[in-house]
Amino acid sequence: MIVYAGSVDDTHELIQFVRREADNLKTLRKLIVSREGTILQDVNGNGIEFPGLTCGSASLDRLLEEFGVVFPSKILHDPNAMPNGIREFDLSACWTWGYG
């Protein structure tokens, strides 16, 4: 597991880190958000961990947008609205981070 050690408040740095490190992973499949942080997983269960990137963070919104995830912002930013404080987002097989 790759662990992001940068600031979760620096959205630009976080996204650039994801773009660099994603090359070390297989096809990205899941983004898991919990009260402690966020994990990006590939098809083999390998991934990137973002400690502290959780509900209420603008960087979390930007990360989800980066992967084309449609999400209900009101529910995402309320950890009590998520079962067990965890929310999972499936990622499509076609990640177009270079688009735009």
Explain this structure.
With 100 residues, this protein is α+β, with helices and mostly antiparallel strands. The protein is globular and about 35 Å long. The mean pLDDT is 84. Strands 1-4-3-2-5 form a five-stranded mixed sheet, with no helix packed on it. β2 (28-33) and β3 (37-42) form a beta hairpin. It has helices at 11-21, 58-66, 73-76; strands at 2-3, 28-33, 37-42, 47-51, 87-90.
Write the layout of secondary structure elements.
Elements: E1 2-3, H1 11-21, E2 28-33, E3 37-42, E4 47-51, H2 58-66, H3 73-76, E5 87-90
What fraction, in percent, of the residue positions are helical? 10-25%
Radius of gyration (CA) equals: 12 Å
**Describe the biggest sheet?**
5 strands, mixed
Order of helices and strands: EHEEEHHE
- Classification by helices and strands: alpha+beta
Can you tag this structure with a few keywords?
100 residues; 3 helices; globular; single chain; 24% helix; alpha+beta
Quick summary:
The protein has 100 residues and is α+β, with helices and mostly antiparallel strands.
